Amino acid sequence: MAEEGERLQKVLAHAGLGSRRAMEELIAAGRVKVNGRRAVLGVRVDPTKDEVELDGSRVPLQQDLVHYMLNKPAGIVSTASDPQGRPTVVELVDLPVRVWPVGRLDTDSEGLLLITNDGELTHRLTHPRYEVPKTYLAEVKGTAGPKAIKQLIAGVELEDGMTKRARVSLVEATRGGTLLEITITEGRNRQVRRMCDAVGHPVRRLVRTTLGPLQLGRLKPGTFRKLSLEEVRALYRVCGL
Q: Which residues are catalytic?
């Protein structure tokens, strides 16, 4: 806890949690901790070093951190730059700070992609240890019946090993295909596509609709929006921050 620095209520207000007066009330009520200890009115903190929690959940304090949700269209590369000169997701958001995508959607896939410069959050969301769920709508070829769905749920053998159990449900039958909702907690390369290939139903179109607590909603393809503070805190919670 910093002896010098900014007053805690000012830092919390700058983080977007409310007015300074409201933050003083939260501190007085014992709902705020600094570095694991209950905070008191008048304490000062260093936003770059001290860890602040509200109701047991960490509050992101660094002013230069940015968190955006992008609805990635097909044909865009999920990297910050591409040696082949293809359009990238970072070019779509065009921010004044250096950012990167969290994980990847292959070039042909679409949907929710987190763009940020938050290194610790990126590590947690992409590390298999934390098993952050990701949900996809997969339009596959052929009629995916109960047998194929049970196989996907139980796990299928891929060249890099057996997949973990997944949540899979039938959404609807399409012309010449099937629409499935698939939730996985791993992040292997082209995993959903390879799983569907393994059960005999190659993917025709793949859209990621959720990442942990984030939902794509009605965000239009090719557009992006800034995450709310509550959405960022929810991401921190889901990966143990």
A: 106
CA 45 – CA 232 distance, rounded (Å): 21
Going by C-alpha positions, the residue among 85, 113, 83, 87 that lies closest to residue 100 is: 113
CA separation for the pair 182, 209 (Å, rounded):
10
Residue with the two structure tokens 């995993």 = 191
- Residue 129 CA, distance from chain mean position: 15
- The tokens for 15 are 């983080």
Which residues are registered as beta bridge partners of 111? 72, 208
Whether residue 37 contacts residue 8, with contact meaning beta carbons closer than 8 Å, is answered with no
Classify burial at 74, counting beta carbons within 10 Å of its beta carbon; exposed 0-12, middle 13-18, buried 19 or more: middle
- pLDDT tens per residue, range 58-76: 887 777 889 999 999 999 9
Contact status, residue 107 vs residue 77, Cβ threshold 8 Å: yes
pTM of the complete model beyond 0.70: yes
